[in-house]
């Protein structure tokens, strides 16, 4: 990973551009790589796109390119070279020798950020396990410090055993210990999730590209104080809150880790337990940064990760798009966004332009969620006496009152309420004999 030494705060950021990457996509990726570097408190001394015609198996770049990069590293006095691509251990090691600087690839960069951001015990264990899995193939270069963990009697290393074999065994033991600890934490999380599932409330998960504004929208919806910063991966640990929609429907909403292009497989595997929140949600709100010039490319990346997780529309979940950061668009772009959101296509998810900062469109977004969850609703027709005020109050708190009248002569209350399936069942158990229910048809 990144050593904190002199000059390591200055970085040369390189994006290898292959033939299948267009210029606009390359510019967006380069900007993102600079943002990732900034998230590690690195100063980008220079950022550049490097066209690559043929990949060199030994050092990624060809000899001529390496010579020019070495000169530029020396001129900038850069201690770190960030290459926004996946490097093999051999390529990374040879690049460090040729450039005389620390070389970090995309996976290593994201792992380093995750290591800084994780706050909960589960998050830290997941990141550490992913990092060790990544570093396992890089033992020659990075894990000699594990020798200090050995006991003084030498019982771990047999005669003739090399240092790398010792380190590999130590690393495997450490990973096994982390897996056991993580299994215990995951069991606890699973119990908590089962308790929430036993509660009669639907679940909604916010998903989207990193830095799309999910946490800001989560705070707006739930009045929570989750960390929301303009930086990649500000949120790693999922947070769940209970909220109510405009109709009184209670639901659980969760904020989740942001996705990113080429999310390292080590992280997808490590965070699979955390991302169960996404797989098990009744509704997914895909938060998109519509001020991002490459928002269509980001959307494709998110859908790709959802598919890898076995989640999304293809998995039978309702998907709603929150077109965020509308406040950053000019008047013409905002009008176009609003017009496009009104066009309902059967092959596309419903969308609402929103601003998590100003609150614009948030109520309309909740209405869409309400509509999506309403397919399982029941209409209750209530006949209650003057002494049944508790039942009417319960309906006001847990459902949507469509009609309510009181007979002036008898004092009998006639009410029509819309309730979710679970709430309708709870009402019948709590107040038997007061209401008759009918299933809401799909057309409402």
From TrEMBL:
Entry-linked InterPro entries: G_HFLX_dom, GTP-bd, GTP-bd_M, GTPase_HflX, GTPase_HflX_N, GTPase_HflX_N_sf, HflX_C, P-loop_NTPase
Cofactor dependency: Mg(2+)
Keyword Metal-binding among record annotations: yes
Keyword terms, alphabetized: Coiled coil, Cytoplasm, GTP-binding, Magnesium, Metal-binding, Nucleotide-binding
Residue stretches in coiled coil: 161-188
Compartments in which it is found: Cytoplasm
Gene Ontology CC: one annotated term: cytoplasm
KW GTP-binding (keyword) present: yes
CDD domains with a match to the protein in the record: HflX
GO molecular-function terms, A-Z: GTP binding; GTPase activity; metal ion binding; ribosome binding
Domain Hflx-type G, residue spans: 202-377
Binding sites annotated in the UniProt record for Mg(2+): 215, 235
Pfam families for the chain: GTP-bdg_M, GTP-bdg_N, HflX_C, MMR_HSR1
Entries under Gene3D superfamilies matching the protein: 6.10.250.2860, GTPase HflX, N-terminal domain (3.40.50.11060), P-loop containing nucleotide triphosphate hydrolases (3.40.50.300)
HAMAP family (alphabetical): GTPase_HflX
Known role: GTPase that associates with the 50S ribosomal subunit and may have a role during protein synthesis or ribosome biogenesis.
Family per similarity comment: Belongs to the TRAFAC class OBG-HflX-like GTPase superfamily. HflX GTPase family.
Entry protein name: GTPase HflX
């Amino acid at each position: 990973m990144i050593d904190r030494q002199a000059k390591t705060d200055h970085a040369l950021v390189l994006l290898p551009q292959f033939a299948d990457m267009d210029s606009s996509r390359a510019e967006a990726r380069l900007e993102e790589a600079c943002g990732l570097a900034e998230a590690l408190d690195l100063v980008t001394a220079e950022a550049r796109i490097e066209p690559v015609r043929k990949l060199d198996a030994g050092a990624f770049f060809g000899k001529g390119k390496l010579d020019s990069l070495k000169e530029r590293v020396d001129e900038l006095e850069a201690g770190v070279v960030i290459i926004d691509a996946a490097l093999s251990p051999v390529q990374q090691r040879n690049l460090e020798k040729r450039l005389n600087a620390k070389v970090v690839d995309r996976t290593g960069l994201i792992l380093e950020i995750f290591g800084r951001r994780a706050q909960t015990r589960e998050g830290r264990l997941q990141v550490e396990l992913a990092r060790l899995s990544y570093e396992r193939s890089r033992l020659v270069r990075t894990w000699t410090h594990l020798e200090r963990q050995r006991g003084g009697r030498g019982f771990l290393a047999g005669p003739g055993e090399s240092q790398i074999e010792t380190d590999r065994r130590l690393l495997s033991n450490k990973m096994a210990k982390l897996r056991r600890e993580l299994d215990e934490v995951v069991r606890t999380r699973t119990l908590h999730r089962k308790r929430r599932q036993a509660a009669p409330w639907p679940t909604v998960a916010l998903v989207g590209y990193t830095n799309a504004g999910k946490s800001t929208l989560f705070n707006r919806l739930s009045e929570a104080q989750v960390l929301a910063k303009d930086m990649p991966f500000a949120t790693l640990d999922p947070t769940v809150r209970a909220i109510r929609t405009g109709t009184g429907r209670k639901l659980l909403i969760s904020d989740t880790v942001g996705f990113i292009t080429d999310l390292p497989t080590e992280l997808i595997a490590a965070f699979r337990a955390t991302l169960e929140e996404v797989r098990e949600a009744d509704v997914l709100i895909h938060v998109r940064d519509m001020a991002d010039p490459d928002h269509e490319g980001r959307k494709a990346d998110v859908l790709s990760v959802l598919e890898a997780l076995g989640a999304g529309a293809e998995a039978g979940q309702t998907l709603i798009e929150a077109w965020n950061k509308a406040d950053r668009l000019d008047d013409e772009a905002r009008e176009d966004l609003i017009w496009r959101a009104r066009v309902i296509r059967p092959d596309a998810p419903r969308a609402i332009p929103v601003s998590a900062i100003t609150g614009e469109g948030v109520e309309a977004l909740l209405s869409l969620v309400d509509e999506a969850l309403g397919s399982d609703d029941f209409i209750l027709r209530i006949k209650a006496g003057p002494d049944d005020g508790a039942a009417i109050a319960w309906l006001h708190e847990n459902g949507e009152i469509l009609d309510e009248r009181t007979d002036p002569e008898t004092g009998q209350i006639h009410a029509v309420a819309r309730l979710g399936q679970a709430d309708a069942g709870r009402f019948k158990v709590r107040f038997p004999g007061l209401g008759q229910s009918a299933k809401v048809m799909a057309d409402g």
